């Protein structure tokens, strides 16, 4: 967060900046290691440590192992429920997707702004990141659909039993609905994470401005704003988990369409 006068700039937290303080270029291309890349590495490292610590295969699992097994079982059951037995082959991808988004969302909520010159960065608050995740998932759906069904995959856009005169109108609508999927998938996660972080910084600005005012009313506003920060933070924790789940769930449903042509 960056101070501007007595307030806080709520958009500064989304600024992509070089970690080393200056841009590095190579043949005209910016190759700087940014805060966005840094937090992706931190997310990947945290996820690796979480999985490594839980893959001990003890006969009587500890809390760490139970947490990892619970996560893997949760995603595995979701894939089997939504796709069927053929969903097992896609479980590693959807599990990785779910866990990466979940860890990225949660790490972005850590109160790292108390460290001078440092602020947390939520990689899922950037449409470029969420769009890449969405389009990779959509690409896998297309590859699976055409590899398994060939041109018969286009029957997905014509509901079974639809008379051909009506199919002429239904097919374009179904096609457009299908093509919009990656955009809505990436946009949903981006908007949810961005809105929550802006709201937290707005209330933080109220706290700073209220304390700087030195009046009783200002202290009251600061206190109420601080209470709202606690409430919104708790809500953001819930939203972080829900958005990761929704992203994984929709991906599994889209894969189900490609596998079973529903």
Give the topology, please.
Elements (H helix, E strand, L loop, with lengths): L1 E3 L2 E3 L15 E2 L2 E2 L4 H20 L8 H20 L8 H17 L19 H23 L14 H50 L2 H45 L2
Antiparallel strand pairs: 1-2, 3-4
Helix pairs in contact: 1-2, 1-3, 2-3, 2-6, 3-6, 4-5, 4-6, 5-6
Mean pLDDT: 85
How far the N terminus sits from the C terminus, by CA atoms, comes to 47 Å
- What's the tally of helices? 6
| Global outline | globular
The helical percent reads 55-70%
Series of H and E elements: EEEEHHHHHH
Describe the protein's architecture and organization:
The protein has 262 residues and is mostly helical. The chain is built from 6 helices and 4 strands, in the order ββββαααααα. Strands 1-2 form a two-stranded antiparallel ribbon. The radius of gyration is 23 Å and the shape is globular.
Task: Name a few traits of the molecule.
two-stranded antiparallel sheet, 6 helices, mainly alpha, 262 residues
Quick structural summary:
The chain is mostly helical and 262 residues long.
């Amino acid at each position: 967060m960056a101070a501007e006068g007595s307030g806080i700039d709520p958009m500064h937290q989304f600024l992509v900046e070089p970690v080393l303080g200056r841009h590095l270029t190579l043949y005209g291309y910016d190759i700087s290691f940014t805060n966005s890349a840094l937090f992706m590495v931190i997310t990947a490292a945290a996820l690796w440590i979480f999985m490594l610590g839980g893959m001990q295969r003890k006969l009587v699992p500890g809390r760490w192992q139970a947490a990892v097994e619970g996560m893997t079982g949760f995603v595995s059951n979701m894939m089997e429920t939504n796709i069927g037995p053929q969903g097992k082959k896609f479980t590693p991808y959807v599990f990785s997707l779910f866990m990466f988004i979940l860890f990225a969302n949660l790490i972005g909520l850590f109160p790292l702004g108390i460290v001078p010159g440092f602020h947390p960065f939520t990689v899922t608050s950037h449409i470029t990141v969420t769009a890449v995740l969405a389009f990779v998932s959509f690409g896998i759906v297309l590859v699976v659909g055409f590899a398994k069904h060939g041109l018969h995959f286009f029957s997905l856009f014509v509901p079974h039993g639809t008379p051909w005169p009506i199919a002429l109108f239904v097919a374009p609508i179904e096609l457009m609905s299908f093509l919009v999927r990656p955009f809505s998938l990436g946009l949903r996660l981006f908007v949810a994470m961005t809105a929550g972080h802006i709201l937290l910084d707005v209330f933080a600005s109220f706290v700073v401005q209220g304390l700087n005012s030195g009046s009783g009313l200002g202290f009251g506003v600061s206190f109420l704003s601080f209470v709202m920060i606690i409430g919104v933070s708790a809500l953001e924790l819930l939203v972080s988990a829900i958005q990761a789940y929704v992203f994984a769930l929709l991906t599994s449903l889209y894969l189900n369409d490609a596998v079973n042509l529903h």
